[in-house]
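Researcher: Here's the sequence for the chain we discussed earlier.
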Amino acid sequence: MPIVEYADGSDLPVAAVVRLYDSVGWTAYTEDPGKLTAALAGSTLLTVARDGADLAGLARVITDGHSICYLQDVLVDPRYQRTGLGRTLVERVLAPYAHVRQKVLLTDTEPGQKAFYESLGYRQAREEDDGGPAVRAFVRFDA
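Model: Thanks. This is the structure I predict for it:
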């Protein structure tokens, strides 16, 4: 099992980050590696899973630390999916914000994601098909 730890987004090897995002098909993020690196560096908190030199997973949060916590990205390399690594990453990145009541995220409509986030206590806010990009909004209220 990979080692999960907090990380500084500005210290992550760009090639490893791009490979991880590409491995899950998030190529819109990897078209501009500089922008992706800046986004990670600007995150409030980041957890990563490393298997040796490989980046096996990543989760990041953007928050004001008091009223809202936005779970921005949760990625797990397909070789490590369905092992509990995604849950571990999310639990670790959210742990310092247990006192923050409102936790939100947006994701696409891939069926497995709905079940995953609901298993973590999130509830889908609303699903609407207006002909635009398919998106799901999830919220979790704690404390």
